[in-house]
Design goal:
Oligomer: heterodimer
Number of strands of chain B: 2
Radius of gyration of chain B: 21 Å
Order of helices and strands of chain A: HHEEHEHEEEEHEHHHHH
Helix content of chain B: 40-55%
CATH architecture of the largest domain in chain B: Orthogonal Bundle
Largest interface: A-B, 52 and 39 residues
Radius of gyration of chain A: 21 Å
Number of domains of chain B: 2
Structural class of chain B: mainly alpha
Distance between the termini of chain A: 44 Å
Shape of chain B: elongated
Strand order of the largest sheet of chain A: 3-8-4-5-6-7
Order of helices and strands of chain B: EEHHHHHHH
Strand order of the largest sheet of chain B: 1-2
Number of domains of chain A: 2
């Protein structure tokens, strides 16, 4: 059983899965930036008490699964989503889906993913890939961050689908049930909804740890790291920040660029000059995140290390927070004609 | 970021695949560009692996000093914490924590040891002697 399926490489796994699955059912108009924007993917949070791999927990995007869910909902496409207790049932269901001609998205853990380079294999469970067929007992897999499709044996796929730990996938799979014609009107509505939901997430979540205030909070915290935990530990924490920010599957600076690209594409649907202006300021914000990452690299590689360097690092984040706040405020002032 | 500024520093991911990056072209319009990797990222990853190597070495020393059971060594080696190990073995977290004590570990039944050995992909004998076969991932 093999489904006609075109592999698409994307910057982020969930965007890629969304775009590919929708293309597969005939929805051609959704590009990666559109999926990211309509799904309100941009986010920031720092949860001081939670530890990931013994370091601090940051997130630069919304909860895994939401981008796909929101994009499909905006387009009025029904999604089927299932988790499993038993491994044999999970495989049986997947095989049945493939027989019925559905390419299927799966949430997996990357630790046992054989085609990943060893350096990237941590116990991280929010990766997404698409299974689009089975050939001689091996599953055909399209992983959006890879250049080419790959294959996995039954055992290998089962192991990554039933990875354990935080956010354990429990065999979760999902697919859009059927395609339908998508009008520009529908996309315009999705864009508007996506932007306003993103404004809410970044500006209006109460408490100091989420959205723009989360970035500011992190910036202020970083300035204290050197004294409170020592240079070595602070370096480790900053390395973790950079990995969460720039690595595959996450990408803070990268996400800002995708959002800027989204605003440009949104402009094609809703010509309002504000969208283009704010797109440029998200580009600047992405650049600033990268500058901050270079500064952090100076610290964890031992080139920098004085309190002034940490202050500078914190100030970058404060600057980003202010810039993103202004951007979302400007977006919230748009008068929509739809 | 402009298209020509997309970093092309060969890194560990670059050997397997290139990454898609969004960047602007001459007219300021967004397009995608493939990146081989970025030095800053590679550095962050190196730091993380150095830290892991140190933790593994510290765990090994602790096991040899009889301050912890061999589970600690293999746990660090496989980047697991108690929660992940409990998930894969099917033990409760409190049981795993208990098994981390050498006195308790030495009395574990063959069956329980096999459960751990299977998750760590070693034999029960290796589990006790801290033997690792690097070729098995």
């Amino acid at each position: 059983m093999k489904i006609e399926f075109e592999h698409i490489q994307a910057a982020h796994c969930e965007n890629g899965v969304t775009v590919s699955l929708l293309k597969n059912i005939g929805v051609q108009k959704i590009t990666e930036p559109l999926a990211f924007g309509i799904g309100s993917g941009l986010f920031f949070t720092y949860i001081p008490l939670l530890k990931v791999n013994k370091g601090p927990a940051f997130a630069f995007r919304t909860m895994p699964g939401l981008i796909f869910k929101r994009t499909c909902r905006a387009l009025g496409i029904t999604v089927r989503r299932k988790r499993f207790r038993r491994k044999d049932k999970a495989q049986g269901y997947l095989d049945a889906c493939l027989d019925a001609g559905h390419a299927v998205g799966c949430q997996v853990g990357v630790y046992y993913l054989p085609y990943f380079p060893k350096e990237y294999r941590f116990h991280f469970n929010a990766h997404n890939l698409i299974v689009y067929g089975k050939d001689q007992g091996r599953y055909l897999v399209s992983d959006p961050i890879m250049e080419n499709p790959s294959t996995l044996s039954e055992h290998e796929l089962e192991r990554v689908r039933f990875a354990r730990g935080v956010l354990a996938p429990r065999g979760q799979l999902y697919y859009p049930v059927a395609g339908k014609p998508i009008t520009d009107e529908l996309i315009r509505k999705g864009i508007r909804k996506g932007i306003s939901r993103n404004i809410r997430d970044m500006l209006h979540i109460p408490g100091p740890i989420a959205g723009v205030s989360g970035i500011r909070f992190t910036g202020r915290r970083i300035k204290k790291w050197r004294n409170s935990m020592g240079l070595k530990q602070a370096g480790l924490y900053l390395a973790q920040l950079v990995r969460m920010q720039e690595e595959i599957g996450t990408g803070g600076g990268g996400f800002r660029y995708i959002y800027a690209a989204f605003l440009q594409e949104a402009y094609a649907y809703c010509p309002d000059e504000v969208l283009m202006e704010i797109s440029a300021s998200f580009t600047r914000s992405g650049d600033l995140w990268r500058t901050a990452a270079v500064q952090a690299a100076g610290i964890y590689k031992g080139r920098l290390g004085s309190q002034a360097d940490f202050d500078q690092m914190g100030d970058y984040l404060l600057e980003i927070a202010e810039l993103e706040k202004q951007s979302f405020m400007a977006l919230s002032k748009i008068t929509w004609t739809i | 970021m402009k298209k020509e500024e997309v970093p092309q520093d060969p890194g560990s991911l670059g050997k397997v695949t290139k990454e898609v990056c969004y960047a602007t072209d001459e007219s300021g319009k967004y397009t995608t560009e493939l990146s081989q990797g970025w030095e800053v990222k590679t550095g962050a990853l190196d730091v993380a692996w150095q830290d892991i190597a140190e933790r593994v070495a510290a765990a090994r020393a602790k096991v040899l000093r009889q301050e912890a059971s061999p589970l600690l060594y293999f746990m660090e080696l496989k980047l697991m914490d108690v929660g992940v190990l409990a998930g894969y073995t099917g033990f409760w977290k409190w049981q795993v924590r208990r098994h981390l004590r050498p006195a308790v570990f030495s009395k574990l039944s063959e069956r329980k040891l096999r459960r751990y050995a299977e998750v760590f992909e070693v034999s029960v004998g290796d589990l006790n002697s801290l033997n690792v076969h690097e070729d098995r991932v």
